[in-house]
Write a structure and sequence with these properties.
- By secondary structure, the protein is mainly alpha-helical.
- It has one domain: Ferritin, core subunit, four-helix bundle (Ferritin, Up-down Bundle), CATH 1.20.1260.
- Helix content is 76%, strand content 0%.
- The structure holds MU-OXO-diiron.
């Protein structure tokens, strides 16, 4: 049986992952409205990934005999200045999520819960990948510097992203 302090922290993380999904869906709506269908696609898939993360936590809490309690999801921003502004916000958000995962790991270590430490390692590794891929897009956008042709090329590239549920297997 998993301890209550950890159950509470894992429940908070379920909420944070669902908030992330809601945030990226809002960014998807923004890009759709602005005519960037590739970036909208990227965000839609990002939103799906976050739901899969929430589900991974959800299933783990249940598996360990804890009680999942779903709380209201906070409202998300709906407007940004441009693509660079959006991806800057994504980078900041993912860096916050990394902090939350690290904090969860600290609690699991303090509670000497080896199973949860092992479970959380997947998220520690996932955050490294997430931060790197967002940083790459931010770097590209910086190089493009608002140039229409560059934005069009990047948008086209981002259209090819497909959803792969990396939480399975
Ligand atoms: Fe679930 Fe983007 O971290």
């Amino acid at each position: 049986m998993i301890n209550e302090r950890l159950v509470e922290a894992l429940n908070e993380q379920i909420n944070a992952e669902l908030y992330s999904s809601y945030l990226y869906l809002s960014m998807c709506a923004y890009f759709s409205a602005e005519g960037f269908s590739g970036m909208a696609n990227w965000m839609k898939i990002q939103a799906q990934e976050e739901v899969s993360h929430a589900n991974k936590f959800f299933d783990y809490v249940n598996e360990r005999g804890g009680r999942v309690t779903l709380k209201p999801i906070e409202g998300v921003p709906t407007e940004w200045e441009d693509a660079q502004d959006v991806f800057r916000a994504v980078r900041e958000h993912e860096s916050k999520v990394t902090g939350l995962v690290n904090n969860l790991m600290d609690i699991a270590i303090a509670e000497n819960d080896h199973a949860t430490k092992s479970f959380l390692q997947w998220f520690v590794d996932e955050q490294v990948e997430e931060e790197a891929s967002v940083q790459e897009i931010c770097d590209n956008l910086k190089l493009i510097n608002g140039n229409g042709h560059g934005l069009l090329m990047l948008d086209r590239e981002m259209k090819s992203r497909v959803f792969v549920d990396s939480t399975q297997g």
